UniProtKB/TrEMBL annotation:
Region Disordered, annotated ranges: 153-209
Domain of life: Bacteria
Protein name, entry field: Mlr2029 protein
Amino acid sequence: MPKIAKTDIELLKTWTLSPAATLGSSVRAKGILQEIQSRLSGTTKKSLVLEGRDLTLAMPASDKTAFLTAVAVVSKAMKDVETLPVIPREIRDILTIKTSERHRWLADGRLPSAGTRTVRLNGRARQITFHVFDPKIVEDLLDRGIVDEWRGEDAEAKAEKRRRAAHQRNLNRSVKKATKGPKKPDRNPDDPAPQLRGWEDFDVDGLLR
């Protein structure tokens, strides 16, 4: 709740986020709060807070005009809150997945993108662009429990990749061994030295004397 003395708070308005809006995620609820706050003026946005699934706007009676303006903005935003795109940190929390899984399933098409969004980091000049997701599709994936199935598919694909790699290594070793040919046995030093053909005739001619 904003730091206003309780005796000054006379203007209150509360909106409740539906399960279809939050998809059971506190991270998603906070994201919705931040999205609506971004539509309010700088002096008013801090007056809107999240408590559980309730958005509460609390302002002193002296700010009635600003309060009514903020109520109109929040009420309008609440009409479309269930269709707000799901951002990366939200989908990770909703589906309980890792960043690497999100990237992999996005790349192979299992996790369809609803487009991209570019934002500027707070206090920085750098911008970042990321994929967002359709809340209806995310809800369907959640209801079907498809994540466990995808993880099983990934585990099987990884195991098959290891088997193929092992087979290829064995094949390469076999080809290399066949190319070298049979290895010649080492000569036993106790065996008699091999005799050269025609040595006797050479010796008879006296050429060694």
